[in-house]
């Protein structure tokens, strides 16, 4: 397995996802005064679907050839932590599908419904940020821990 090439791809995918996440946050934060939310809904649905595709792709890479494989290869005793992060991936996929499904059903005049879905989407983005921190901590634990030996 070419860890360097996989690491480079994961870095690019993380950067791309960060851009799409910023676009989601910007679209949600867009001050839209019209009572008809058609344009804002269209934009959020479009960016939301892009986010879903990028997140799915990134998580598949992480699970198949990414940090999870590297961690398990170097520190098999961290299997439980890797599996916990893998379960979170599944939870994120499920939650995002539900949120985007709700977003598709929001009517252009339903500001309260829009605000509710937007709030849930922001909460999901915040949980994803926390998940990313846990991934970094796991990688650091796996790759930067001194195993002893030569002094």
Characterise this structure:
With 151 residues, this protein is mainly α. The protein contains 5 helices and no strands. Helix 2 (38-64) packs antiparallel against helix 4. The chain is elongated. It starts with a helix and ends in an 8-residue tail after the last helix.
Give keywords:
single chain, 151 residues, mainly alpha, 5 helices, 81% helix, elongated
Topology at a glance:
Blueprint: H1 3-29, H2 38-64, H3 67-74, H4 79-105, H5 111-143
Helix pairs in contact: 1-2, 2-4, 3-5, 4-5
How would you concisely characterize the structure shown here?
By secondary structure, the protein is mainly α. It has helices spanning 3-29, 38-64, 67-74, 79-105, 111-143.
Q: Could you give a short account of the major beta sheet?
A: none
Gyration radius from CA atoms, angstroms: 19 Å
Q: Separation of termini?
A: 31 Å
- Overall shape: elongated
- Determine the mean pLDDT: 89
Which spans of ≥5 residues are poorly predicted at pLDDT below 50? none
Helix content: over 70%
Structural class: mainly alpha
Q: How many helical stretches?
A: 5
Task: Give the oligomeric state of the chains in this entry, treating copies of one chain as homo and distinct chains as hetero.
Answer: single chain
Q: How many strands appear in the DSSP assignment?
A: 0
The helix/strand order is: HHHHH
Proportion in β-strands:
under 5%
């Amino acid at each position: 397995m070419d860890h360097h090439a996989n690491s480079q791809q994961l870095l690019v995918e993380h950067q791309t996802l960060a851009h799409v996440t910023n676009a989601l946050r910007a679209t949600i934060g867009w001050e839209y005064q019209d009572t008809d939310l058609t344009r804002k809904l269209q934009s959020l649905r479009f960016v939301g679907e892009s986010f879903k595709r990028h997140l799915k792709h990134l998580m598949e890479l992480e699970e198949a050839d990414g940090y999870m494989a590297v961690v398990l290869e170097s520190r098999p005793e961290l299997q439980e932590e890797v599996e916990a992060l893998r379960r979170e991936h599944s939870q994120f996929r499920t939650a995002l599908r539900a949120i985007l499904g709700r977003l598709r059903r929001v009517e252009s005049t339903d500001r309260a419904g829009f605000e509710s879905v937007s709030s849930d989407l922001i909460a999901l983005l915040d949980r994803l940020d926390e998940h990313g921190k846990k991934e970094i901590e796991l990688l650091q634990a796996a790759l930067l821990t001194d195993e002893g030996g030569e002094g």
